[in-house]
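Reopening this ticket.

The earlier resolution said the output was attached, but the attachment link was broken on my side. Pasting everything inline this time so it's all in one place.
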Amino acid sequence: MLKKIRWNIAQFFELIWWQQYLRKRSVDEYLTWKKKYWTDFLTTIEWPAFDFFKPHLRVLDLGCGPAGIFINYANHPITAVDPLIAQYEQKIAHFSKQRYPHICFVESTIEDFQSPEKYDLIFCINCVNHVMELEKAIQKLYDITEEGGYCVVSIDSHKYRFLKTIFSMIPGDILHPHQHTKNEYTQLIRKNKFNISKEICLKSELIFDYYVFVLQKSISSPG
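Inline output:
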């Protein structure tokens, strides 16, 4: 029950954060900037090596927000998932489903997301810290990734254990129900059988490091 309450509070303030952040930003200027941001992001993690834009790939953007990486897939049908899709549509001018007729938007949490297919490429950017059930969410990522497929996950991780303990007891970071170190996230990822193909620290700040993991699901041996 406590997890659900904390998650609901985080989602409430997540919407408010987006509204405040975007309210004075031009829609077109912001989306142009955001597309460049995603292009730079993929360049930083060396996306050509992973062929992230092959036409046949089944792509999923989990926790997509109002301007997730799906906006860079202009001609590629993909699925974008977020529990606040309807709220973004109603309350944020920068998001409209009509802008992206090729995108299949699904309103769901990661944990509850159901799909009849598995995906060759999953993006879960700035999302893992926001989920209600962390271990269940990581397991879901693994279950819906195709064998040999990739999952790109980014997280904010605590640099200092004593601050992590304080933030866990007192919500000093109200948008993020989960407060963990990088090693704790790494252990959970490996527990769920993902191979870590790449690990990059994109930003290091006073309290948090911002990491990107490129994960791969192994191909099962025949027989």
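Reporter confirms the inline version is readable. The chain has a mean pLDDT of 83. The helical segments are 2-22, 27-44, 85-91, 134-143, 161-169, 182-191.
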